[in-house]
Amino acid sequence: MFQFFVAKKTDPKAMLKKVLGDHDLPSFPDVVLKTLEKTRDPNASSGAIAQILAEDPGLTVRVLRTVNSAAFSPIKKIENLTQAISLMGMSSLESLVLSMGVSKTLPNDAVGGFNPKLFWQGSARRAYIAKALSQHLHPQKNMESFTAGLLQDMALPFLVKRKREAYDKFLKSWDNGERSLHKMEKETFGWDHAEVATWMCWEWKLPESLASAIGGHNQPEENGEHKRPAAVFLVSLIRNSMDNPGTDQLTQAAQEKYGLEPEMVKALIEESFEQAEELVNIIGH
Fold it and tell me: Across the chain, which distance is largest between two alpha carbons, in Å?
């Protein structure tokens, strides 16, 4: 049980049942869980991890596509999985495999005002902006920021299916920049998508640090319950909207709260948007 659940005496399984009803969470891919366990073993070799990954041809292909992408720019094409893992490093591999596991597990249906393509595009944008901002705010947390940025809204596809009428209104208002999504959720339900995502993390046995970062991503200031990198909060201002993505709000907050120069932030955002398109293609959206 995560410590912040213990402190609040929260039963995540019961809360998920209350929110999602009969829409039970699907099981998290077993190969992904076994791979994640190995990546956290300091004695695990790239070969041992490659052996597990090879059980899932789809994951294998995506890892190889990633390591041969512009993000890593190898001198020559990498076709060996063990070599690919060695080049990527454990933190990058863990982030990628975790992201692909979640991607395979979330619903991918267009329901009401929810557009899966825009959802994953927005998620990928948040991931790359978080990683870029992290280099200036907390370099040691760049991959943690990337993963939390990508997955901070992962509860939305489930919530949209379960509570379509409410989320049609929420998403329209959020995309137009009228109101914050989490505030509308809190007023209506008493919980928000960040909280639901932490319950999902527990159910899927994902890292507590990731659950904590996701749970606090809407909070301007850290508190005792959730610890999240500053970059993860900043990218929560990015919306899944083509016309109104929230970049101006992010740029302003980055300057006011963390002293980052607006021109630098704008350049990071532009580059991150380009990188996001490649990630969306790699994870299959």
Answer: 54
Number of residues in the chain: 285
For residues 192 and 205, the answer to whether their CB atoms sit within 8 Å is: no
Which residues, 6+ apart, have CB-to-CB distance to 119 below 8 Å?
A: 153, 156, 157, 240
Q: Quote the CA–CA distance of 54 and 131 in Å, as a whole number.
A: 28
Q: pLDDT tens across 204-253, in order?
A: 989 999 999 999 898 876 655 677 899 999 999 999 988 889 999 999 99
159 Cβ partners below 8 Å, 6+ apart?
19, 167, 193, 196
CB 129 within 8 A of CB 268: yes
**Phi, psi of 111, deg, nearest 5:** -125, 120
Q: Report long-range pairs for 182-185 (Cβ below 8 Å, ≥24 apart).
A: 182/218
Tell me the whole-structure pTM to 2 decimals.
0.91
Tell me phi and psi for residue 114, to 5 degrees.
-95, 125
Q: What is the helix (H) or strand (E) element at residue 43, kind and residue range? A: none
Q: At what angle do helices 181-189 and 164-175 cross, to 10 degrees?
A: 150
DSSP letter assigned to residue 220: S
CA distances from 105 to 180, 200, 235 (A): 26, 11, 23
120-146 pLDDT per residue, tens? 999 999 999 999 999 999 999 999 999
Taking alpha carbons only, the member of 164, 185, 211 closest to residue 10 is 211
